[in-house]
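Researcher: Structure for this, please.
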Amino acid sequence: MLKIARWRIIAVVIAALWGFAYSAPSLLPESIRSALPAWAPSKAINLGLDLRGGSHLLLEVDTKGLFKDKLENTVDEMARALGDAKPRIGYTGRAVVGDAARIKVIDPAEQQRALAEIRKIAQPVNATGMSAGKLDLDITEAADGAIEVRLTPAAREALTRDAVTRSIEVIRRRGDASGTAEISITRQGDDRIIVQAPGEQDPESLKRRIGQTAKMTFHMADASVAPADAAAGRIPPGSELMPSDDPGEGAVVVRSRAVLTGDNLAEAHAGFDQQTQAPIVNFKFDATGGRIFCQITTRYTGQRFATVLDGKVITAPSINTPICGGQGYIEGNFTTESANELAVLLRAGALPAPLNVIEQRTVGAELGQDAVNAGLAAGIVAAIMILGFMCLAYGLFGVIACVALVVNLGMILAAMAVFGATLTLHGIAGLILTIAIADDDNELIY
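Model: Predicted structure, token format:
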């Protein structure tokens, strides 16, 4: 006679009860799930885009802006290398022209020494495969004697790959911070990202939330430029005219060089001004940012300090007193919703490069419900046919096998609910296939 250890029976019963308890909420309507006691499992399986409906976006990383930023950083490194040389090497005309960072040595006799110093800033590309070990910069001499530095193909490939990886992580943080935990983000090709948000019926809202670069920088305003000169476009070197979020001001002339960046932000959350009750965004810098912020507000007391988001001045108040606590707030033409949205973006971090929308689709809830109904009907029919065949063909052993199949299905659904997995139409087909394969196994066993 077949004897089964008691501990095995107990383990099977506990596993079966666990599976039924955590899979049951997925089969209950929302009204019943919300009424369950706090101790009872209530988490349902996330439905995918093809079942629930939602938004689909195909995004492409703007590599032109990415490469330009890298070249601008490179030209600064070139100038620093020549300035730190012993003795110092004089230079002029540093700029980014087309796909090259350029700088010109004043004394032609120093050309070779300047080339040697600039070659030191080239670094091996952090890559795998054939690109590994190659340098990121191609350094040449132009016909006019200027030193030109270009990104190598290996560097462009590595920058693009890194930008896509970082963008995926930023998008995921923004989605989670907004309560869209089931958002699906996948890489496509070298520079594209697919974002699917089940339940999100407004693709414009989704684009605003995940597609904004959210690159925040802090600049000193250039008070030396008269309003008439700014209106005529007479901007001195080292400054630039930026549009303002304040319709009464139009534009603000700020120093091109940022004195502080959003990379030093540690916290950001929406709030209200204690005097006007207008929505604001409170922020706090990390230790390094707080120290720099204190130095800036102490040195430039009485001058205007501009907060710039993606090339647009949000606010440019005057510094009345030094601020050394590492905390501040951003005020502007905010609504409660836009203040919350900006706080989410700042907490998630800035995208490494802008994202261009290549394709967007909206899947209606009606289509999703049709898919749910069709998949559910197919699953029920398949289950009845399989269970009926097992019972008729194998008798008591078939009944035992059917119970095992039901327990198996319940545990799969429970695991999907606990770990936050997303069920799609393809997943329903997979569940049906799983039952069929388990049926084959039972036939072989019995």
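Researcher: Any notable elements?
Model: The first strand starts at residue 46 and ends at 47. The radius of gyration is 30 Å.
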